[in-house]
């Protein structure tokens, strides 16, 4: 019993030492020892506002919209970015367009000049300028166009096959094609098939007879060149001369003098009366 009495007395003494007024006025929860400095200075930590990444100056992306032509552009653009054919349902789901429910949109999509439909597989694909999907097919396409006297633009080939530039560089190293590049940054511009290829020992050498004939040709001067062209029924090309437009000349004539127009007096009954003087009735 003596220990219980001692504990009760210690508890009562602890309650007597508590400052209840300050506890009720400022009931702050206990803090860890590291935050004791903030309590001493009375500083309160402010809650950080969540960052908002919305740019209000830019219009919000509202999706594919409600216009049929806008939805058609989204559908065709996605079909262009996909190398493999797709089902109509998959195109509608990915692009979020009503291709299945909207008959007008479906009709425009089917009759688009860049959309190809295979009734056997019921799949849709994009019509590229060149049907190229491999390095041998690319070489065949370049060879076919070179025989017609023209090369191929690398940009158009890249739109048909994204790996076309890398394949063209490999064909150039193998000596299969010739490539022209831009002067500014050296990017691939045009590609031609190499019709004169050498063997393992090196390029083919032109015979000396043809080399001598080539160097024996001389270009005549400007006067004789025009005569030689006229004798062969040809005509020199002349660049179109742009005549600068001149402002129409002003016609010379007498200068018109603006004279001050005399006001017309309407109140004729006031003629002869000086209105600047005060009126004095006559007696």
From TrEMBL:
Protein name as annotated: Transcription initiation factor IIE subunit beta
Species this protein is from: Thelephora ganbajun (Ganba fungus)
């Amino acid at each position: 019993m003596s220990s219980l009495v001692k504990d009760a007395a210690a508890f009562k003494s602890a309650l007597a030492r508590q400052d209840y007024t300050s506890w009720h006025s400022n009931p702050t929860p206990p803090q860890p020892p590291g935050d004791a400095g903030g309590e001493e200075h009375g500083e309160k930590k402010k809650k950080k506002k969540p960052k908002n990444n919305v740019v209000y100056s830019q219009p919000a992306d509202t999706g594919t919209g409600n216009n049929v032509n806008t939805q058609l552009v989204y559908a065709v653009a996605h079909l262009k970015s996909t190398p493999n054919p797709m089902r109509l349902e998959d195109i509608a789901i990915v692009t979020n367009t009503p291709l299945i429910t909207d008959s007008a949109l479906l009709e425009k999509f089917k009759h688009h000049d860049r959309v190809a439909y295979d009734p056997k597989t019921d799949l849709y694909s994009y019509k590229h300028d060149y049907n190229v999907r491999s390095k041998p097919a690319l070489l065949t396409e370049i060879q076919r166009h070179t025989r017609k006297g023209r090369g191929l633009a690398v940009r158009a080939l890249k739109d048909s096959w994204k790996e076309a530039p890398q394949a063209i560089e490999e064909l150039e190293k193998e000596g299969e094609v010739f490539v022209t590049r831009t002067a500014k940054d050296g990017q691939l511009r045009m590609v031609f098939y190499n019709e004169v290829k050498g063997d393992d020992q090196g390029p083919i050498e032109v015979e000396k007879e043809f080399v001598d004939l080539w160097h024996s040709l001389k270009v005549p001067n400007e006067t004789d060149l025009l005569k030689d062209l006229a004798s062969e029924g040809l005509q020199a090309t002349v660049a179109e001369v742009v005549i600068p437009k001149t402002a129409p000349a002003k016609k010379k004539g007498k200068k018109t003098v603006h004279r001050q127009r005399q006001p017309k007096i309407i109140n004729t009954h006031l003629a002869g009366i000086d209105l600047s003087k005060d009126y004095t009735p006559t007696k």
